[in-house]
Design goal:
two-stranded antiparallel sheet; 9 strands
Length: 222
């Protein structure tokens, strides 16, 4: 179990004050203050809550009384072949069902998608329709009215043709994926919190400047 010295050192490394650590650990500020002063014998449950909060913030406790800031992992997966798109949709659902959040999509023509991957898209939309908790926002090309997502869970906005991306890309959880059409299709998934957040902020900026399509557009079904 971690020591008082490690708790203080970890707070310093994260630039957290006691109030921040108490909040993240779900304990009272006086309880943390007493713990760090050595005024009480800490309960195991309290130490476990503090350690969990620090570890989730990126602190790694090493042998003895050491600690360090864990390096952010960078994971890259390449999906290729007939099952690449199916596996991509499965990863969307598995990630969002577990972690929550939204699927952010850009550079997609759903009419093209229906022609090339209709069964996989239809199966995914059916699962999302039953789940109801997974939301999707899509930046599509101005004038595109072929919308296949559920009206209750999918929101579309138009971007100018000049800035519409030709490569479909997706942001979900701590992942960013791109789909390269071809024979065979290839998918590159990058998993890294900082990269995902960078792409997410760029998406939000473009979303803010995008236009709402007319409300009377009829949604298609795959």
């Amino acid at each position: 179990m971690i020591s008082i010295e490690q708790i203080k050192a970890a707070r310093a490394l994260l630039n957290w004050d006691q109030a921040m650590l108490a909040k993240m650990a779900g304990i009272s500020l006086p309880a943390l203050g007493n713990l760090e002063r050595g005024a009480v014998t800490p309960r195991l449950k309290t130490l476990e809550a503090v350690q969990k909060a620090l570890e989730e913030a990126g602190i790694e406790f090493t042998e003895g009384s050491g600690l360090r800031h864990r390096r952010e992992a960078l994971k890259i997966d390449m999906l290729e072949g007939p099952q690449a798109i199916q596996r991509l949709f499965e990863d969307f659902y598995a990630t969002l069902e577990k972690e929550g959040g939204e699927l952010l999509v850009r550079g997609v023509s759903e009419q093209t998608f229906i022609k090339k991957a209709r069964p996989h898209l239809a199966a995914y939309l059916e699962k999302v329709g039953r789940h109801k908790g997974i939301q999707t926002r899509l930046l599509v090309c101005e004038g595109d009215v072929y919308f296949v997502g559920h009206r209750e869970t999918s929101i579309y906005r138009w971007v100018d043709k000049e800035v519409f991306g030709l490569v479909p890309s997706y942001i979900y959880g701590d992942k960013h994926a791109v789909l390269l059409w071809g024979s065979p299709a290839r998918v590159v998934i990058t998993q890294n919190p900082s990269l995902a957040e960078t792409y997410r902020r760029q998406f939000e900026a473009d979303w803010k400047n995008a236009r709402r399509p007319p409300k009377d557009i009829l949604y298609q079904w795959p």
